[in-house]
Automatic annotation (TrEMBL):
Record family assignment: Belongs to the TACO1 family. YeeN subfamily.
Biological process annotations from GO: regulation of DNA-templated transcription
HAMAP family per record: Transcrip_reg_TACO1, Transcrip_reg_TACO1_YeeN
Source superkingdom: Bacteria
Coiled coil: none
Organism lineage: Bacteria, Bacillati, Bacillota, Bacilli, Bacillales
Molecular function GO terms recorded: DNA binding
Primary residence: cytoplasm
Name listed for the protein in its UniProt record: Probable transcriptional regulatory protein B4102_0989
A cellular component annotation (GO) from this entry: cytosol
Amino acid sequence: MGRKWNNIKEKKASKDANTSRIYAKFGREIYVAAKQGEPDPESNQALKFVLERAKTYNVPKHIIDRAIEKAKGGSDENYDELRYEGFGPNGSMVIVDALTNNVNRTASEVRAAFGKNGGNMGVSGSVAYMFDATAVIGLEGKSADEVLEILMEADIDVRDIIEEEDSVIVYAEPDQFHAVQEALKSAGITEFTVAELTMLAQNEITLPEDAKAQFEKMIDVLEDLEDVQQVYHNVDLSE
């Protein structure tokens, strides 16, 4: 699949370490998921998924509890889920997912982040067709063959299983996310290094150094926006 998931997460965690920004983003996502259904992860699959993700980023319990209690309290704060698509330098492609209580503000900020860094916004569908929605689950302590055997015994067919450094990464259809996790948990695996529903580029591209620096700046600006939850792209940023 060509993507180093643990490296990506470490980079994000390092970038966010001193700002608690990642916790604020999770707090918003947990609140929205809890408000849209029951505030109980056992009966709310969307909430269960967000909490699984939060666990891999070590989001503090008080952040999680506060967001769920806010949803239980009947807060009238509402958020729209938005997706923006656009282009960066040298034909690079970007998808931006946001949660916002001010659509005009978010659209303006995302457009500016593209425009000031060598990119431009595209229309809906202009980029997404080059990406595949994918469940990505990472774990340690097992080999790829052992994980494959566990999933085969559970009658779960996944896209790919690879070994990445000290981890095994499972790529699956989005609707298999919980089934894969439950099968692995039944086999005694309780901790996951990655638990994501993401958009994977069908083909990654490599940028020349000057365009790569400009592209990384654009991604950083997008990820810094308060309303932006996730940014996906098709550029290989590995060193």
